[in-house]
Fpg/Nei family DNA glycosylase
Amino acid sequence: MPELPEVESLAEFLRAHAVGRTVAGVDVVAFQALKTVDPPVSALAGLTVTGVARHGKFLDLDCDGLHLITHLARGGWLRWRADLGSVRPARPGKGPLAARVRLAPEGDEPEAGFELTEAGTQKRLAIYVVHDPEQVPGIAGLGPDPLAPGFTAETLAGLLRGRRTQVKGLLRDQKVIAGIGNAYSDEVLHAARMSPFKIADKITEDEVRVLHDAIVTTLREAVERSRGLAAKDLKAEKKSGLRVHGRAGEKCDVCGDTIREVSFADSALQYCPTCQTGGKPLADRRLSRLIK
């Protein structure tokens, strides 16, 4: 799933390649992905891309004040095409293509643009056309952005206070903190040397500062690693930069212990026992009580 660093990198890529160009048209292939009807998607044709922003995991193209907003969900991705003029017209079907955004030719350059695709059978990619990003429910309910200047250790302490939930789930809650998903929450907690099952309200003042530093540093480093990469290379960069997530059974780069996994109904988390839980393996929540 694309998370804050990948979406920020996609935004930077589109700022360099799409801003200033005119939208020739937007072809929606997976009709279930389009979540709004007024304004119609056809209203984007003829408008100029004036900016690209990120709201948590949402990607926002500002087209003369009309916003084309996308949430890539778990299996979605963006593919830049410099040769859209030579590609067959998009047609509804069972393939991964969800939508195609066409940008008018510019000078000697052909029609370019990007495709939104979604792998897998669970189709959750979402597309919105709105006058104001706050009209998208997922954006209106977002918590603070962890890379914003105002996201301080004190801000984090306030978000944790009084919450009797596990810190792993809290980090993934977009209404609490925007942009962190399953992968980077694992990475943050490993960097902070904190159990994913630790109760948020039990985190001490010193631990809050460590966790805050881990959040900001982990995300900023991931963004820097991805900076300047083509959209097609971001997935591989994300995977290569992860220390624990998706690496169950491998050795921890920090201590050499074996990275372990806890499985859930539709996802899994990975952690290092030595670095995070005092050497104790965490119990599978489906079978027994959790280790705090």
